[in-house]
């Protein structure tokens, strides 16, 4: 999700174009490149974003969920009010299934869950933090897909059960396996080891808002290995 961070700094927009991976009369599923906001930020320099680009071609496109500026991957964009309403209900009911892939430092266990509460960090706004007292319950399931011993890097599959801001980045950093290229929650060499955050929303599945038929769209990350 986009956060107040977008409102405070100028975030240069990627020149990489979005791509359409599913299209019909009532919805699109498109890929957002890394280094592009999903919606406009308040800063005048942050008006270029995914939805403004899509609306040039599809004026009725609306946003029903977001990806961070740094995160690449699939975004569902309803084209009608009915589609927006129906898909919104699915997100609220947590019946939309989202999977991410990431490259992280260290050897992650084969599979597990991270259940750590997340709160806004009052001392370091607009960042977030793990806090047992004020944090909202947050759950991430993960699975290690591979491990590169030479680079000490794990390729992981991530399933966020909840949808807190910066949840995947925070949870992985909290268990000692920050995402490579994460300039917010990783330190030094890990943050600088890639030109982008190596986190990608690679799969989304939900029921079509008109037909109720299950729909799954996938887009493997370019950093897959």
Automatic annotation (TrEMBL):
Q: Pseudouridine synthase RsuA/RluA-like domain: which residues? A: 27-174
Report the domain of life of the source organism: Bacteria
CDD domains, per database record: PseudoU_synth_RluA_like (cd02869)
Record's keyword terms, sorted: Isomerase, tRNA processing
The gene from which this protein is expressed is yabO
Keyword flag Isomerase? yes
Pfam families with a match to the protein in the record: PseudoU_synth_2
Q: Does the keyword Isomerase apply?
A: yes
Protein name, UniProt field: Pseudouridine synthase
Q: Which PANTHER family match?
A: DUAL-SPECIFICITY RNA PSEUDOURIDINE SYNTHASE RLUA, MITOCHONDRIAL RNA PSEUDOURIDINE SYNTHASE
The UniProt family comment states: Belongs to the pseudouridine synthase RluA family.
